[in-house]
Amino acid sequence: MIDLHCHLLPGIDDGAADLPTALRMARIAHADGITVTACTPHIYPGLYENTGPAIRRAVAQLQAQLIDAGLPLQLTHGADTHLTPDLVAGLRQGRVPALHDSRYFLLEPPHHVAPPRLAETVFALLAAEYVPVITHPERLDWIEDHYATFVDLARQGAWMQVTAGSLTGRFGATARYWGERLLDEGWVHILATDAHGADRRPPLLGEGRQAAERWVGAAEATHLVETRPQGILDDVTPDQLPLVPGATAPSAPRSGWARLKQWLRRP
After folding, report:
1. CATH number of the structural domain spanning residue 21
2. CA dist., res. 32 & res. 137, Å (int)
3. How many separate domains does the chain show?
4. Residue 80, H or E segment
């Protein structure tokens, strides 16, 4: 499995506080079956002033530490990027690192308030030939009133990433509902851990894969944690990768009653 959203780098944001914690997280990830992890610290002007060159250096240093510790976990780089007016320029100049220097990058919307002109910003990024991977929409406070916006963005070419722990209840019933609904209607492209520590929010991806199988089956669950993430690392264009089910379904989404019955049957 490939985890493309993990706050593993020690001491540069609200993720791993120090090297011992980062090593513990790496051990947990490896034991869970994760083979590649993208270190994706926040880039949040005024709070986390991380840059592409500094992130790349920190990833190389941590990779050396993992090798010394005998941990066969391959690291790559990216960033949990917030909306800024100069985002396209930052990506082109390398100040904002895309995932593994591909056309794909993590875009984290604000948690509590819907940002103005989100759709216009995403379309501009797509027009610049970048693919924004919108992180954890199911955990945003405002998804209920803007669910259709995320569906429209996915239809236009943006990717959706759901946190694995949302599907197992680690983030509460509301996040689980929206994560399962996005899966049920076929709009989730990848799963990731969004891990921030070894005890709190550990890097566990397998449990999300298993939970996803109940909604989309084993083949699509594999696409969520292996096929599409590997396509990102290989910088494959989206049209060369398996489409999400929602993009290929000719019929309307599953009815609310059918979704409710499956919700009530969940463990």
Report:
1. 3.20.20.140
2. 24
3. 1
4. strand 80-82
pLDDT in tens, 20-71: 999 999 999 999 999 999 999 999 888 889 999 999 999 999 999 999 999 9
Q: Is the pLDDT of residue 146 over 90?
A: yes
Which pair of tokens denotes residue 63? 């990779």
Q: What is the pLDDT of residues 90-140, one digit of tens each?
A: 999 999 999 999 999 999 999 999 999 899 999 999 999 999 999 999 999
Q: Which of 57, 54, 48 has its CA nearest to residue 80?
A: 48
Q: What domain range includes position 169?
A: 2-265
Dihedral-angle region of residue 104 (phi above 0 means left; psi in -120 to 50 means alpha; beta otherwise):
beta
Residue 78 Cα distances to 4, 105, 106, angstroms: 8, 7, 7
The secondary structure of 62-122, three-state, reads: HHHHHHHCCCCCEEEECCEEECCCCHHHHHHHCCCCCHHHCCEEEEECCCCCCCCCHHHHH
Residue 100 falls in which region: left (phi positive, over 0), alpha (psi -120 to 50) or beta: left
Nearest to 228 by CA among 99, 88, 77: 99
Residue 131 DSSP code: E
pTM to 2 decimal places: 0.92
Task: Pick left, alpha or beta for residue 11 (phi over 0 → left; psi -120 to 50 → alpha; otherwise beta).
Answer: left
